[in-house]
Queue: 4 jobs
Job 1
Amino acid sequence: MDPTIFHPTFKARPYWWDAIDIDGPEPATELPARADVVIIGGGLTGLNCAIELGRGGARPLVLDAEPLGYGASTRNGGGVSGGNNVGKGLSGAKGRQSPEEMRDWLRAIMGDASEGLAHIEALVAREGIDCHYARTGRFVGAWTPKHYAGMAAKIDTLNEFAAADAHMLPRERQREEIASDYYHGGMVVNRTGKIHPGLYHRGLMAAARRHGATLMGRTRAGALTRIADGWRVETSRGPVEAGEVVIATNGYTGALTPDLKRRLIPVASHIIATEELDPALAASLIPKQRTLADSRRILCYYRMSPDNRRVIFGGRARFTQITPEVSAPILHAMMLERWPQLKGARITHAWTGNVAFAFDYLPHMGVTPKGLHYAMACNGAGVAMLSYLGAELGKKLLGKSNRMPVFDGRDFPTRPFYTGRPWMLPMVGNWYRFRDWLDRRAA
C-alpha cells in the first residue's frame, strides 16, 4: 500500500466502528419458542420496526446472520435526508399527464419521504440516543452550469412538497459552503441532518431491548414455512414460530426471499476517513459543517467527522464490491480534486457497504404474495427512509396506523430475467463516467 496515501494504522473497516464494539460477544440470549413477529435483518429498518412493536405491547424477535449492525446501517456516511432526493427517475409519474396529476403525485411521495427526518429527530429525542445528531443542512455542488440550472428549476418543488428550506448559491459565493472552486455553484438544503451511524444503531438496539424486543445477532434465518397460526422460521439456533415475519434486509437481500431479491439492485458504496487534520485546515473545509454531495452521476458525498478532525469521504469508486485497499486510492484522488489542500492527508479507514435501489427509484413497503411483510429500497437515503418505513411497518402490524405511507402496497417492479445479480453495473458505471466526462467537457 502506498505510504503517501495509507496511514500506518490503516484499518479496512468503518471509522464508525471505533466507537462501538461490533466484534464483541453476543449477549447470552436464548431463542424463544415463539414471538409475535420475527424480523429478519438487524439494521435500521428492523430495529425501528421492533421499537414500534415493543412500544405497542408486542414481543418481536430480531435476527441477523451477522453481528447486529454489521451491514449498511453502520457503514453509511451518516447523512440524514429530508426527502429531497426521492423519486429521482420520476418513473412513478408515468400515466400522469396533467400538471395537477403530477403535482398530486409529487406532493404524496415527497411529503411522505420528508417524514423520515422528522421521525429520526423525534426518535433520537424520545429515546435519548447520543449519536451526534444535528440538523446542519446539505450543500449539493453542481457538476456543470447546466446541472445548476436543473437544480434551480426544481427548487420550488422541493420547498413546496418536501419543506426543504432550500436555496441556490451561485459559484461566486460557493466558498461560503466549501473551501473549493470545484463546482459551478449549487443548492443549499437546510432541512437535512447528519448522525454518527454506529452510535445511532447502538442507541436503537438499546431502545428496542428496553421496549421488550429480543435481539439475536449471528443467527441466520432459514426456511420460512406457513403454519396454522403464522410462520415457522428455521434458524441456525433452532426453529421459532411467529404470527408474522418481516423482511428487513435491503441491500443484503438474498436467496431466502428470491422474489424480493429480484426487485432490488444492490450497489456498493465506498467510504474513506482521513487521519486527523490540522485544526485550522479542518475548520476551513466546510465552514457551516454541512454534509456535502454533488450532481454527478458518479456520486460523491462527504462531511467532517463528529469531532471535526477528519474528512469522511464516500462515493461510487466502483458500483460493485472491491476491497478497501482498491477503493481507497480512488476516493482519495476524488477528494483531492475537490480539496487540493488535502494533499498529504493519509487514510486511516476504508470500507464499503451495499445500498439498494429499486427499478422505479422509490422506496417500497408491503406484503409479498406469500404473506411476508417488507420495507426496503432506500435508493441512497436509507438512514432516514428505512428508519421511517421500519417504524411505519411496526405501526401497521399493530393495527395502529391512522394512514399508510404512500410507499405501502405500490407495485414493486423488476425486469424480465433479472434474478438480483446486478451483472450490468460495471457497464452502467462506465457509461455514467463517460457521461460525466462529456458534461464537464461541454461546460
Note: The chain has a mean pLDDT of 93.
Job 2
Amino acid sequence: MPHLVAELTVFILAVFVGFEVISKVPTTLHTPLMSATNAIHGIVLVGALLVAGVAYPPLGAVFSLIAVTLATINVVGGFAVTERMLQMFKARAPAKK
C-alpha cells in the first residue's frame, strides 16, 4: 500500500508540473512542439506495452489496456497534428481559369 501511495503522489505531481509547463508555452509553439515530441509519445507506447506484458491479472490487465489505448491515441494524434501542420506549408496549385 505505501508503494501505491508513493506512485500516486508522483503521478499527481507530474500532472501538475506538466500542466504548468504546457500552460506557459505560447500558442504559436504548440504545433512545432507537438511534432518534435512524437518520438517521446512512441516511447510511452512502448513502455505501456512492456508494462502490459508483465501486468498482474485482473486489475493490472485493465490498467495496461487503458495505458496502451491512451498512448496509442497520443501517438496518432501527434502524427495527425504534424501532418496538418506540414500541409500548411505545401505550395498550393494555381487556380484554373
Note: Helices lie at 2-23, 30-36, 38-53, 59-88.
Job 3
Amino acid sequence: MATTIQISDNVKSILDRMKLMERETYNEIIERMIEDDKEINEKTRVEIEEARKRIKSGKFISHEEVKKRLGL
C-alpha cells in the first residue's frame, strides 16, 4: 500500500541530489538510507563492544600517555 507524505522543498532538493540514477524513486532513496543506517548502527555496536573488552583487559593507552608520546 502506498502512502503520500509531505516533505519540505529543502528535503526534496536533498533527496534529488542523493539519487544514484535519474529514475531512482524517493522510496528507493529512503530505503537505501534506512539500510545504511542499520549497517552503521550494527557496526558501531560491535566496535563499542570490542572497545569495552579491550579496556577491561587493559589493552588501551590513556590520554596522558598519548599526550606524552605526542609531546603535548
Note: The chain has a mean pLDDT of 93.
Job 4
Amino acid sequence: MEVVNALGRRKAAVARVFVSEGQGKIVINGRDLEVYFPSTILQYVVKQPLNKLGVAEKYDIKVNLDGGGFKGQAEALRLAIARALVKINPEDKTALKQEGFMTRDARVVERKKPGQPKARKHFQFSKR
C-alpha cells in the first residue's frame, strides 16, 4: 500500500495526514501523539475513527498540524484521519458518516465589526 494523504480543518486548525501501513504509530509535527496531546480526552478524539473501524494498530500516521487551539487541532485531525481511511477503503464511509466523523464542522469565529468592541457587543448607547 502506498501513502494516502488527506486534509482536515476545524476553526483555524489545518491537519495534513499521511497514512501508511504500520504498527499504529501517530506522529504529529515530529512528536508522538501522547506528547503533542497530553490530554487523554483529545487522544481519544483523534483515535475515534480508527477505533470505530478497529484498525488502530494497522496504520502509521504522520501529521502536519497548523493553526488553531488544541481542541480545534484534535478535531481537524479526526476529520483528516476519517477522510484518509475512506480513501483506503470506500466501504467504511457509511460507518464513519453515521458517527459524524466525515462532516466538516463549519463553525468559525465571527469577525469583529468596526465601531464595536467585539463581534456582537455594542458600546452603551447614550441619548444625551
Note: The domain at 4-99 is CATH 3.30.230.10 (Ribosomal Protein S5; domain 2).
